[in-house]
Amino acid sequence: MNTVIQLSYFLAAVLFILGLKRMSSPVTARGGIVWAGAGMVVATLVTFFWPGMHNYGWMMLAIVIGGGAAWYTGKKVAMTDMPQMIAIYNGMGGGAAAAIAAVELMRGEFFSTTFQVLAVLGALIGSVAFSGSMIAFAKLQGIIRKSLIFPNQQLLNLLVFGGALVFGLILMAADQPGDSSIFLFFLLALAFGVMMTVPIGGADMPVVISLFNALTGLAVAFEGFVLGNAAMIIAGTVVGSAGTLLTQLMAKAMNRSLGNVLFSGFGAGATAAAEQGEEGIMKEVDATDAAVMMAYADKVIIVPGYGMAVAQAQHKVWEFTKALQERGVTVKFAIHPVAGRMPGHMNVLLAEAGVPYDMIYDLEEINNEFPQADVALVIGANDVVNPVARSNPESPIYGMPILDADKAKNVIVVKRGRGKGFSGIENGLFFLDNTRMLYGDGQEVAGKLIAELKQL
Q1: How far is Cα 212 from Cα 128, in angstroms, rounded to an integer?
Q2: Which of 74, 165, 285, 430 has its CA 20 to 30 A from that of 442?
Q3: What pLDDT score does 421 carry?
Q4: Would residue 124 count as lying in a domain?
Q5: 223 and 249 in one domain?
Q6: Residue 415 lies in a domain
Q7: How many structural domains comprise the chain?
Q8: What would you measure as the largest C-alpha separation in the chain, in angstroms?
């Protein structure tokens, strides 16, 4: 039976890896999710046959409750709320790893000191990932609306983390860890996860979510070693490595180090003025004129952002795109790596609306086409098209690679109001001579553009 179990775990690991590989492309991503899901089903079912396994009733209850909640939320949660759902699900993975470590520490039955060390490390990392992900969820959901920043904050965080490490070392060295040491260790670890996340602004959430995803994978892998579970080791390693690479890519896309993301407080109320905004004014355009500009254009590049997601305008935008194509206009979509509130957020929204994959281009592929575009239509995007990132060394986003929407012959920005974007940084694009502001809800504006286009 043990051979069958190990072979099943190997099969599950292969399905995890192949599924992750297929998720790297929008064309095969759906199939990748199915493959990885099949691997999880295999790993879950074979666990029931593990020698000495008991408490089957509790196991079934947990599967029914967890599976039911996942099925319901997967069906009901709007695509705009997907980032916070990812955050809370990821946090649950870290919390599960920490809970496993807690049980093993209280039992105190380790094969060797190495396993005891791995249990403590998994507990520390999993606890931080769990509590930090809960704060990320609360920020994205709007439950926490302000980032908490106060003097000597990083010093206090360091002291809390140091305290968790001290109790962690005590647990690593103890023959039979005491309940009070275990309690204080987890309390400090959970507190650190909260304290390191509360000062981080919403604009940095894509990087933070990726980081906690990597930490969750690492914690699961460590606990897999403790339990001697090959499936947990492989799955955790794959998730941890993928999350680490994604975090590095996200940070690179913002031209910032991970340390700067975690400790600078960027996006927690930045007020840097736009270089162009000090001299110019925002110039408004109505839906009729905007529709005319795009109807008689040769090329239009659409830049979606989180505002499009909030308005759930992706379907109307695609309908408008098809109307332009019927008039012979070439239309392309430009996606920045950190657009939205999680990696790949805009790609998922456009795919949901039915936009073909070959119309969606990333920053490196599309940037050199903006100067030839007659119109760049920006819908709900802010920092990723802010030219201040190129021109103003005093700006918090200076040096961040951006989409060169400002280089198009004409720019139309669809925006709900005249306020600043999510990060609180004024956008110099809005004040340029070739930019016109089209105010209103993204879905309503797209509907008006469609109606005006049909009348031409």
Answers
A1: 8
A2: 74
A3: 57
A4: yes
A5: yes
A6: yes
A7: 2
A8: 81
Active site residues per annotation = 383
Q: Residue 357 — φ and ψ, nearest 5°? A: -65, -30
Q: What pLDDT, on a 0 to 100 scale, did the predictor assign at position 273? A: 41
What residue type is assigned to position 62 of the chain?
A
289 and 234 within one domain: no
CB of 294 within 8 A of CB of 300? yes
Whether residue 129 has pLDDT greater than 90 = yes
Q: Give helix 179-197 / helix 113-141 axis angle, nearest 10°.
A: 40
Domain boundary among 211, 228, 263: 263
Q: Which residues pair with 332 in a beta bridge?
A: 301
Distance CA 127, CA 219 (A): 9
Same domain, 402 and 298: yes
Q: Per-residue DSSP letters for 307-338?
A: HHHHHT-HHHHHHHHHHHHHTT-EEEEEE-TT
257 vs 272, higher pLDDT? 257
In a domain, 91, yes or no: yes
Q: How confident is the model at residue 149 (pLDDT cuts 50, 70, 90)?
A: confident
Angstrom distances, CA of residue 151 to CA of 81, 134, 160, 363, 391: 33, 24, 15, 38, 31
Examine the domain organization and report whether 335 and 201 are in the same domain. Answer: no
Is the same domain home to 442 and 355? yes
Percent of residues, the chain, with pLDDT higher than 90: 46
What's the confidence (pLDDT) of residue 372?
A: 96
Q: Is residue 61 part of a domain?
A: no
- Assign residue 304 the CATH number of its domain: 3.40.50.1220
DSSP state for residue 371 in the 8-state scheme: G
| DSSP class per residue in 129-145 | HHHHHHHHHHHHHTSS-
Q: What is the pLDDT of residues 43-101, one digit of tens each?
A: 889 988 888 888 889 999 999 999 999 899 888 887 777 788 888 999 999 999 999 99
Residue numbers of the domain that contains 203: 77-263
The pLDDT of residue 277 is: 42
Is 231 in the same domain as 207? yes
CA distance 278 to 276: 6
Confidence band for 264, pLDDT divided at 50, 70 and 90: low
**Token reading at 156:** 């206090």
Give 46's contacts (C-beta < 8 A, 6+ positions apart): 4, 5, 8, 9, 12
Using alpha carbons, select from 441, 423, 410 the residue that is nearest to residue 384.
423
